[in-house]
Design a protein that fits this description.
The chain has helices at 24-31, 35-49, 66-73, 85-95, 133-142, 158-162, 194-203, 220-223, 225-229; strands at residues 56-60, 77-82, 101-103, 117-123, 143-154, 172-180, 183-191, 206-212, 239-246. By secondary structure, it is of the alpha/beta class.
């Protein structure tokens, strides 16, 4: 998610929810230079990944490929997949026809062998899912022992902050409406408390090495003065970042 929601609702009957094929171009265009994506999420992932030269990385839910491109620019060998065929098409336009990009669903068995990757990135993916057990098990399977999984999800304080009636400790489905460059979108998320996240990581065979609430990139203060005036510390609590190690 790249735009802060304004009016969350908890509905179980949402038409075409999370269907990125319907708004892939608009979503990509908006987030090429957005504060939350270009100057917060992507640089934070690159920073957490560190030296990735020669490392084989799986970008799970790669979207149109901006994280893949950033990691490839740092010397990684990047493979990506997304459930949206349109997003994979846009990623191929960005990364080239020879890029290893596939249409696949993170909630189902992945088309990669055991231990195929040094690292995985799942950025703004898991918070769309009620059940994390199967996706995390698959990501653990395709990682080498000692490999890293970098996860970015909605911060657990976000929904309770937006809707004070929310039970922080309950796993809660909620939706919001967006306009991405003229393309309407309905996105549905699952809120869960922090301990539920870390418990799921442990159950899947990961050790939590880092929990991060990073600041925005320094240049964001100059580029987005009005937005950053609301966050004098330079930190956004819209997402929380994890670095997990495969046990």
């Amino acid at each position: 998610m790249e735009i802060m929601p304004s009016d969350p609702t908890s509905s179980t009957d949402v038409a075409a929810e999370n269907d990125y094929d319907l708004f892939a171009e608009g979503y990509t265009a908006v987030n090429e230079t957005s504060l939350l994506n270009a100057y917060y999420t992507r640089p934070a992932i690159v920073n957490l990944a560190g030296d990735v030269t020669g490392r084989r990385i799986l970008d799970a839910g790669c979207g149109s490929g901006p994280v893949s491109a950033a990691l490839r620019d740092k010397g990684a060998v990047v493979v990506g997949f997304d459930r949206s065929a349109k997003m994979v098409e846009l990623a191929r336009q960005r990364l080239g026809d020879d890029a290893d990009l596939r249409v696949a669903d993170i909630s189902r068995p992945l088309p990669y062998p055991d231990g195929a990757f040094d690292d995985c990135v799942a950025a703004l993916v898991l918070h769309y899912l009620e059940d994390w057990a199967a996706p995390l098990a698959e990501l653990r399977r395709v990682l080498k022992p000692g490999g890293r999984l970098i996860v970015v999800v909605n911060h657990p304080i976000m929904l309770p902050f937006l809707d004070r009636k929310t039970d922080y400790f309950a796993t809660t489905k909620w939706t919001d409406e967006y306009d991405f460059n003229g393309q309407k979108a309905t996105l549905t998320y699952w809120h869960r408390p922090l301990h539920a996240m870390t418990d799921a990581f442990t159950a899947a065979g990961f050790r939590t090495a880092v929990i991060s609430e990073p600041p925005v990139a320094p240049e964001a203060h100059e580029l987005f003065p009005d937005d950053m005036a609301k966050f004098p510390s330079g930190a956004f609590l819209s997402f929380v970042f994890f670095v997990l190690e495969a046990a």
